[in-house]
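Narrative of activities, Objective 1.

The group set out to show that a structural description can be obtained from nothing but a protein's sequence at a throughput compatible with the screening campaign. Below is one input-output pair from the validation batch, recorded exactly as produced.
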Amino acid sequence: MTKKKQPRKQHSEEFKAEALRLAEKIGVTQAANQLSLHGSQIYQWRAALERKATTSERESSLATENARLKRMLAERDQEVDILKKAAAYFAKNQK
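Output recorded for this entry:
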């Protein structure tokens, strides 16, 4: 006799968010019991949400750093252009 695996339930993002809010209020174990879930599911959803938030913060800081570096590069390009023009001007006047 072989056991058939039951398909996993797919929970919506809204359900997960509500479950996490409930777990914050009454605790993970009680929330899991009330929602007929395993406590480990709530812990996994919480960890995934924290990873997502951390990634977003990291992407934001990288975008800020990238913009700063682009501004610095543009300034350096302007300085180089000015120096080239000045060198050409003085080379022309030296003759």
